[in-house]
Design goal:
Blueprint (H helix, E strand, L loop, with lengths): L11 H11 L6 E4 L3 E4 L7 H17 L23 E5 L5 H6 L7 E5 L6 H8 L7 E3 L8 E4 L5 H6 L3 E4 L13 E3 L9 H5 L7 E3 L20 E3 L7 H9 L5 E3 L15 H10 L5 E3 L13 H4 L23 E5 L13 E5 L4 H11 L4 H17 L5 H14 L4 H14 L10 H17 L3 H11 L12 H12 L6 H14 L5 H9 L2 H14 L5 H13 L4 H9 L2 H11 L4 H15 L11 H10 L8 H15 L12 H14 L14 H4 L8 H17 L1 H10 L2 H9 L6 H7 L1
Parallel strand pairs: 3-4, 4-5, 5-8, 8-9, 9-10, 10-11, 11-12, 12-13, 13-14
Antiparallel strand pairs: 1-2, 6-7
Helix pairs in contact: 1-2, 7-8, 10-11, 11-13, 12-13, 12-14, 13-15, 14-15, 15-17, 16-17, 17-20, 19-20, 19-22, 20-23, 23-25, 24-25, 25-26, 25-28, 26-28, 28-29, 28-31, 30-31
Amino acid sequence: SFKMASDSPESLMTLCTDYCLRNLEGTLCYLLDNETLRLHPDIFLPSEICDKLVNEYVELVKTDSIFEPHESFFTLFSDPRSTRLARIHLREQIVQDQDLEAIRKQDLVELYLTNCEKLTAKSLQTLVSFSHTLISLSLFGCCNIFYEEENPGGCEDDCLVNPTRQVLVKDFTFEGFSRLRFLNLGRLIEGVNVETLLRPLASLAALDLSGIQLNDVGFLTQWKDSLVSLVLYNMDLSEEHIQVIAQLRKLRHLDISRDHLSSYYKFKLTRRVLNLFVENLVNLTSLDISGHTMLENCTIPSMEEKMGQTSIEPAKSSIAPFRGLKRPLQFLGLFETSLCRLTHIPAYKVSGDKNEEQVLNAIEAYTEHRPEITSRAINLLFDIARIERCSQLLRALQLVITALKCHKDDKNIQVTGSAALFYLTNSEYRMEQSVKLRHQVIQVVLNGMESYQEVTVQRNCCLTLCNFSIPEELEFQYRRVNELLLNILNQSRQDESIQRIAVHLCNALVCQVDNDHKEAVGKMGFVMTMLKLIQKKLADKTCDQVMEFSWSALWNITDETPDNCEMFLNYSGMKLFLECLKEFPEKQELHRNMLGLLGNVAEVKELRPQLMTSQFISVFSNLLESKADGIEVSYNACGVLSHIMFDGPEAWGICEPHREEVVKRMWAAIQSWDINSRRNINYRSFEPILRLLPQGISPVSQHWATWALYNLVSVYPDKYCPLLIKEGGIPLLKDMIKMASARQETKEMAR
C-alpha cells in the first residue's frame, strides 16, 4: 500500500495531480474569505482522480518539506456528487478526526489509516458511516482511536483542574460492517476485547493482529472457511495458538514472525510445529517465521545438505519439514534465523541475512510496518554495498529511498539508510542511475538533514551529496540545499568533519552558477557565515581545508556579484584578509584564494575607494613580487591594482606609496611572468578585463588586460577563443592597436 520509488518517467496523471496539489487555488479551488479552500462549482471528479489527489497529498505533506498542508483540504471531498472517493491511504499526524468526519458521506471501499496517532474514538463513529461499503480497513498503529475524552461533570473549577481524561471505549464493535473482508488491527492498544470487536464479521479473508497479546485465539476458527491471510507478528505464541492455526485450512499466507530483540519469548519453534503447518495448511504459499529460535534440529545432515546444485524443489529441501510441501512457497521469511543460511530452501523469495537477494527481500517485506526490522536489514545492505559490490543496485536504491521516505522520523532508519545511500550513489554505480532516481536520492537526503540535527545523519547526508555533480545535479533544490548547509555551519558547536564537508559543498555550489543564484545565496547570509568560520580558524591559529575552502567560496560568490562584494567589505572582510596574510605568510593556496576574491571586489567601481588606503596599496604592491602558486598571487594582485589605476591619478588619495612607483612595480611584475603559464583560474566572462582595453588613463592596466587575454587564449584556445569573440573582444583589440597612448609591447601582444 505504500509507494515504491520508481525509475520510469512519471505518468501524465501523476504530473497533473502534483501540479494541482501545489497550485490548488489556481486549478481546482478558490479561497473563501481568504482562508477556506472551496472547490469550483463546475468541477466533477471521479474516484480514480480523487483517490490519487488524496493519496498524493498525504505523500507530499510527509516527504516534501516545502509543501504546505491545508487545514481545509479534506472538506474538498465532502460532497460525493462532485468528488468521489473509494480507496484512500492516510498516514501519521497528517490526519485528524475532523478530516475523516469531512469525508463521511463517501462510499469508501478501502481505508488505510497507518500510525494516525491523532485519531480518537470520534473517528470510530465516523467509520460507522462507511460500514455498508468498506471491504478493506487498516487501523495499524492508530494507538488513540479507542480512547475518548471524558468530561467529569460538576463545577467549572473542577473542569479546570482535570479538563479531560482519556477513557477506553468498550462498546464499539464491527456490527453492520457486512462487506468487510480485510482488516489490520496491528499494534492495537491493550484493553480492547478483540474477540468481541470482531465477532459480528461474517467472513474475514485477511486479519493482521501484529503486536497484540492474546492468550486465547480460539475465536479465529469462526472464519476457518474464509481466512486466507493471518499475521501474528510479535504475538506470544503457545501450543494452543498452534492448534488453532492448524485448523485454519484455507490459509495461504501465515506470518508468526517476531522481533528477536523485543522481549523475552518462551515459545520455540519445533520440527513438529512446522510439520503440522505443512500437513494441515495445504494451500500455504507464504510463510514467515523470522526471528524464531529453533528448539531442535530441523535441518537435514550437513553432508547431504551441501550436495548438488542449489534447488528450490521441496524434495531436496535442507529444512526437513518442508520436504512435505506440494510445491515451493512463493515467499518464506527466515530473517534472523539460522535456517536462511542453508543451501536448499524451497521458496522463490526468501528474506534472510545470507546474501544481497535475501536482505533486499527483507527490506521490501518489512519496510511499511516494521521499521525496527528494516533498519537492521538496511544495515546489512550497507555492509554489502561497502565491502562487496551490489548486483541489484537499482532495486537496492529504490528500497532504501522508500524506507527513508516512509520513516522520516525514525532515527535508526535515517542513520543506516543515509549511510547505505552514500555507498549506493558513489561513482562506480553512477552509470546505472537515471536522473529521476538521483533526484529522489537528493530529496530524501535533504529531508534527513532537515529532520535530524544528529551528527551521524548530518555527516552521512553531506557525504552523499558529495557523490553528485555540483552544482548541476543540485540545481533543482538550490535554495534548500544552501539553507541547510549554512544552517549546519552556523551551529555553535560543530563536528570538524561535517564542517569540512559542508564548506566544501558550499564552495562547489557557488562555483560556475548564474549571478542570480549567487545573489540569492548571499542574501541567505553566506558571506557572513564564511567570514565567521575564517574568524574562528584565525583565533585557533589554524589554516586548514576549512579556512582555504571558506576563502575559495567567498572568491566564487563575489564573482561579478557586487552585492556580495559589498557585504564582504561591510563585515570587516579586509581586516580578516590582512590578519590571515600576517598569520600565514607561507600559505600559497590561501593567498591565491584571498587575492582572487579581492580581484572581484576591485572590479566594482563604487567599492574601489574603500581599497584606497596606504596599508592596502602597500600590501598589494608587495604581493606583486610573490612567487606563490606560480604566477597566480602576483597576477591577482596586479589585477586589483589595474582596476584601481583605471580610476586615474585623481582617485589616488594617498601620499605613500606614490602612484608612479606602484606602476613601475606592476610593469616589472608582468614582464617577469611566463606567457605560457598554465593557470589555476576559471573565467566565465572577460567583461571585467575587456573594460580595461579602450582607455588611455592607465597603460599598465591595458597591458595587464592584454597579457591576461593573450595567456588564456594561447594556453586554452578551445575554451577562451570562442569567449573572446562572443564578448566582442576582437574590435576592442583592433582599436587599441591604433591608440597613441598604448605601449608598443602591448600593441604587439594585441596584434
